[in-house]
## 1
Amino acid sequence: QALLAESGGGLVQAGGSLTLSCEFSGRTISRYTMAWFRRGPGKEREFVAGITFGDSSTSYANSNKGRFTVSRDDAKNTVYLQMKSLRAEDTALYSCAATINNFVGTSPVYYGYWGQGTQVTVST
């Protein structure tokens, strides 16, 4: 059974940093493109960042470029999201997702596997 499990969320002050992790069990992560999405209070789910398998090409939402970094460690079956210079508007439930497609889709419809999410709260 495939399972995505996120961790690393928490409460952080504006301007601070957090690193989220997502472990993919039951599958070989090296065959999946991985992505992060988030859903803020009263907002729709939105794409955050993604990374393909093979050449590890990355893609970011414009609001995150330069602040967030997505990476993967296939040996650990884990994908990471490093976040810095956090803002109040980054407060959200962050979920990781996986797809066999070898491109980073920005729509949730491209992803067949989802984690439950980890909460990130940025205080001002």
## 2
Amino acid sequence: QVQLVESGGGSVQAGGSLKVSCEVSGDIWRTRCMAWFRQAPGKEREGVAAIGTSGNTGYSGSVKGRFTISKDNAENTLYLQMSSLKPEDTATYYCAAESGCLRPSLAYYDYTYWGQGTQVTVSS
């Protein structure tokens, strides 16, 4: 089994920065591919950043250049550094994991394990 626990969410003004974390425990080998998703009220879950088995990354167009995904394998923690935040970035942010992938994926159906989410609110 895999447990994913997000933290670091909060409120920030537009233009600010925030870093959210996802601590991984359990069967670590099932989390070789990971990603961050977000969901705003009334909207579908959206993949924003993903990291593959070799550390290669992928981003959605809406966050590319502003968000950075990284993974500390020694600490079993996934990060999402968010900069130049906009009100439209307001959402619940979820981390997700899968045991393998051909490439970093932003598709929700490619992931088996999910955290409970952490709220990020950006005010104008």
